[in-house]
Amino acid sequence: MENEIEKIKLDNHNNFTPNNPKINKIFFLQIINLIISLLFIFFLIIENKSKTNSFIGKIKNINETKTLEKKIIWLKMLTNNDELEYKGVLNCLINNPDNEFCIYHLILPKAVLGKNRILFGEKHDGCYVLLDDLSNIKIAYSFGISSNVIFDKILADKGIDIYMYDHTINSLPYNNSRFHWKKIGLCGKKTKNKKLKNLEELIEENGHSNENNMILKIDIEHWEWESIIDLKEDTLKQFKYIAIEYHFKDEKNFKNENIYYKVLKKISRTHQSFYARCNENRSKKINFGNNRICHILEVSYIIRKDNIFLKDEAIYPIYEFDFKKPVLGKLEMNLNILKLFED
Fold it and tell me: Is the pTM for the entire model greater than 0.85?
């Protein structure tokens, strides 16, 4: 019996010794597979980094393009050789930027001298990018609340009173001593509908007709266009910052496309864009004339008066503020195209 036990122990020992050819072969194959996997991952990282660096390098060189021919080369690259988008942007770039289907140059972001961009909130819908300068701001207007008051709360915590309006909800999801909410929706021209009022009416009601240096946030599901088109320029000048979520409809479903151009042109006269991004839902494109654009676009503005603007050297999307890192070449709107409009 003892001899049999010793034999079993010896057999087991021999099975797990380095000299066992079966074990050695399996172990060797596992090492080879591991090395191959590591090499694959390594080369994949290097390749992606190379592509990204190459893309960024090309984008940075856009500012150095001075001839029309070079701009066309960059344009083809930035539109990922999409013939429809390429021809649309080319027409806007060369022939007539001031037509109702050319809006890129109207939302061209620029850097603001001495001020940095800051995301107010987390990287999701309902949060906006402003600058690190909220000095002397005591009042903000916020239109379109729904269940998200993150942006509003951040401003309230900084000592700013928020006048909030949304006729589609019955109460705020969160209360704050600086929140002033009314169940009223924003409209354009004056109306007999008691649930709707225009911005100028509300400013007067709140006793803010002589106030300046305010913040305006609008996210009202496409009604932003009608609510702004008839505003007086002096009303817009009352706001230091304007943060808008623009909603574009496909031309088949919206026959008054030139209102887009008119509104963007109107705001660009008094305010300068310093940030733009496609909304979190990147799954849909709309045709805008011969151009393609993400159907929801957030743009942040600052008043032109008393500010100095520089060329925006940022590479879009700015991952620090964007919802997620998109795949290069598959953006609904490649905001780097805007750089081709820079002087």
Answer: no
